[in-house]
Amino acid sequence: MEFALFSHIPWPENITPKALFSDLLEQAVVGEELGFKAIWLAEHHFTRYGLGASSLVIASNIAARTDRIRLGTAVLIPPLHHPVRLAEDTATLDVLSDGRLDVGFGRGASSSEYGNFGIDHAESQARYRETIEMVETLWTTRDCTFDGKYHTTQHLNLVPTPLQKPHPPVYVAATRSVESLDFVASTGRRLIIGVVLNTDDALDLLGRFLEQATAGGHAAQPSDVPFFRYFYVAETEEQAHRDAREALNWTLDINTWRREFSVGSEVYESISDYRNRRTELPPSYEYLAEHRAFIGTPDQCAAQIQAVHDAGVRYFGCNFAFGGLDQKKQLRSMELFAREVMPRFAD
Fold first, then answer.
1. For a FRET experiment, which of 1, 3, 51, 63 has its CA 20 to 30 Å from that of 279?
2. Residues 172-212: pLDDT tens digits?
3. Superfamily for 2-345?
């Protein structure tokens, strides 16, 4: 079983972007030393939910400070990028990182993100499919001519082309959309399963993907499907929940709050003011700790991983970096996980 890191680079009010980027780099360096396969970064815009607006730039910084850990995007939002520029930037990062890039795409940006880019959210499904196809074509085709609904090229030669051949591995996120699952399963691409689904639903999604992909003649493997959960491990169960509660509650609140905005965002408002005036509550900490997070002692977390392993998961992604959790606690959790849990799942 392989293990990875994930972060959407949350930005609480009490910390600076510079400090968060420095912490993320340290997590990547330590993660490489501890044996994590990859670090995956989310793209978000105009919100404290995540500082990954330029996730490829951030990944390039990590690439310059590491040697082995792979660099994943979970996910890039294709409709918010011009496909030619996206093909150039990803190919350049693949070369700079010595072929360590995994490119994950997804459609799940909030309406305010689409709106502030001047993109009609109703077009997101068609735009994201076309952009993915165009990027892959540009990566691999000399003198490329592409005639799409939203973008066209004539006799274009990408410079540079990716180091990985034919191109970096391509992953596509799917959650509840039948359209998205059909797209990834029917085209031979790899699936990403994020933290937004409950674990039982995420396992069901994995099973349906593998079944549909196999039925379509594609050699889908569980080891090619990153399966992400919020994650925190400590010496005692009490300590694990005490450390994780505030940070996970912040994540729940900011994710609910940011979706109120069709224009603008919550960045320069106070989350405490929002909490005082809101009329509906997000799911509780207890609900997420039971259904979307693995939080507890090494034995408890290992048992939860064993359960998803028995259900078919072979590539498990840990979101240690949620809600502005203190850096020392994150690193201690990563180190305890690598020492006490990962060896139990060695091949």
1. 51
2. 999 878 888 999 999 999 999 999 999 999 999 999 999 99
3. Luciferase-like domain (3.20.20.30)
How many whole angstroms separate alpha carbon 339 and alpha carbon 246?
26
The pLDDT tens digits for 160-172 are 999 999 999 999 9
The Cα–Cα gap between 243 and 56 comes to 30
CA distances from 174 to 211, 287, 323 (A): 15, 22, 23
Query: CB count, 10 Å around CB of 109?
Result: 22
For 114-144, what is the HEC assignment? HHHCCCCHHHHHHHHHHHHHHHHHHHHCCCE
**CA 333/CA 278 separation, integer angstroms:** 33
What is the model's pTM? 0.97
* Strand partners of residue 127: none
In this structure, what are the phi and psi dihedrals at residue 105, rounded to the nearest 5 degrees? Answer: -120, 155
Residue extents of the structural domains in the chain: 2-345
Tokens of 306: 């064993």
